[in-house]
Design a protein that fits this description.
This protein is of the alpha+beta class. It folds into 3 domains: about 5-130, Rossmann fold; about 140-155 and about 230-360, ATP-grasp fold, B domain (D-amino Acid Aminotransferase, Chain A, domain 1); about 160-225, 2-Layer Sandwich (Dna Ligase, domain 1), CATH 3.30.1490. It has helices spanning about 15-30, 115-125, 135-140, 145-150, 165-170, 170-180, 210-215, 265-270, 285-300, 335-340, 345-360; strands at about 5-10, 35-45, 50, 75, 85-90, 95-100, 105, 160-165, 185-190, 200, 220-225, 230-240, 245-250, 250-255, 275, 305-315, 320-325. Strands 12, 13, 14, 15, 16 and 17 form a 6-stranded antiparallel β-sheet that branches. A 4-stranded mixed β-sheet has the order 3-2-1-7, sandwiched between helices. Strand 4 and strand 5 (about 85-90) form a beta hairpin. The longest helix is centred in the last third of the chain and has 17 residues, at about 285-300. The radius of gyration is 20 Å and the shape is globular.
């Protein structure tokens, strides 16, 4: 029997292009080649779909030279209707078939990939895919929408204000009062971005304008959040089997000792001052409560595919900070670390995600 073909889709137009490419390196290295045939498809920063090299080392996370998808002249030709699952590739020598694709694994981070856009394209083509569907992806990408939905489901969230430039231009004094009411410190974030791109910690209101400019460079809407004092803990969530409850991993903890917060350099460039500990040192009751809230949050925005749920733990209460529907899979990412600490290997985790997508289809 032929092995199912998995199209690994990565890169993309967002500011997280390089992180997606680095994630691809980890996935290409770990995917079970005895069970799956792999078709690596890169998306350039300009949005061209190209047939990429099936070489994990090419996308190694190197702080001196972040990986990226470059335009190599090839072009992926997607099926022309739901009656076909054949992928084709065009290059200078002509056009040839890559065979049928059974499932697409879109390991895209940020806009134009994690936000429901790619998922919508795949739905139109009738192609099964790993991860959340269109609505859950769109909700998960939009921090304001996620927080609003979680709050409606009774999930504790960090207090926030969402604002855009036109709001500030119409009534700067009103919005500053609302923002200042959150108290200091505060975090300023783009509404639809990840990997801490465009995020600033504000410890003095004189720093607010610069922080807003940095966040507005990434998105037209910005979140200002109250800076909760507490431990940063995270866990991974997978859907339940056969209609069962969501499965939640053990917790991991981000311990920041020499930086203002867990920023891009600490997440991906192995910058000093941050330690990832998994499993986190939590009492049994604390872990159970965290896992309960994580499962509730996962179900609140759709309960599909996978998610990493990020918390602040004050010692008595858990507050959901963010929910990521396509977390990083780089060797130093927390999502795979949490599942490995829960007893699942990296290849088994990838197989689980692919098989879940095939079953859902």
């Amino acid at each position: 029997m032929d092995k199912p073909a998995v199209a690994v889709l990565f890169g993309g137009r967002s500011s997280e292009h390089s992180i997606s490419s680095a994630t691809a390196g980890g996935v290409l290295r770990a995917i079970d080649r005895d069970r799956f045939r792999v078709i690596p498809i890169g998306i350039t920063r300009d949005g061209a779909f190209v047939l990429e090299s099936d070489d994990p080392d090419r996308f190694r996370l190197d702080p001196e030279h972040l990986p990226e998808v470059v335009d190599n002249g090839t072009r992926i030709v997607w099926p022309d209707s739901t009656l076909s699952r054949e992928l084709r590739v065009k290059d200078a020598s002509g056009e040839r078939s890559l065979g049928d694709v059974d499932v697409v694994f879109p390991i895209l981070h940020g806009r134009f990939g994690e936000d429901g856009t790619i998922q919508g394209m795949l739905e139109l083509l009738g192609l099964p895919y790993v991860g959340a569907g269109v609505l859950m992806s769109a909700l998960g990408m939009d921090k304001h929408a996620t927080k609003s939905m979680l709050q409606a489901w009774g999930v504790p969230v960090v207090p926030w204000v969402a604002v855009n430039r036109s709001d500030l231009e119409r009534d700067r004094e009103l919005w500053e009062r609302r923002i200042h009411a959150l108290g200091l410190p505060a975090f300023v974030k783009p509404n639809r971005a990840g990997s801490s791109v465009g995020v600033s910690k504000v410890s003095d209101w004189a720093e607010l304008d610069a922080a807003l400019d940095s966040a507005f460079a990434e998105d037209s809407t910005v979140l200002i959040e109250h800076g909760v004092v507490g431990r940063e803990v995270e866990c991974g969530v997978l859907p339940g089997r056969s209609g069962g409850d969501p499965r939640v991993s053990v917790a991991g903890e981000i311990i920041v000792t020499g930086r203002e917060f867990y920023d891009f350099e600490a997440k991906y460039l192995d910058a000093p001052g941050v330690e990832l500990v998994c499993p986190a040192d939590l009492r049994d009751g604390e872990l159970a409560e965290m896992q309960r809230i994580a499962a509730r949050a996962f179900e609140a925005i759709g309960g599909e595919g996978l998610a990493r749920v990020d918390f602040f733990f004050t010692g008595t209460d858990f507050f959901v900070n963010e929910l990521n529907t396509m977390p990083g899979f780089t060797p130093i990412s927390m999502f795979p670390k949490c599942w490995i600490a829960s007893g699942m290997t990296y290849p088994e985790l990838l197989t689980e995600l692919i098989e879940t997508a095939l079953e859902r289809a």
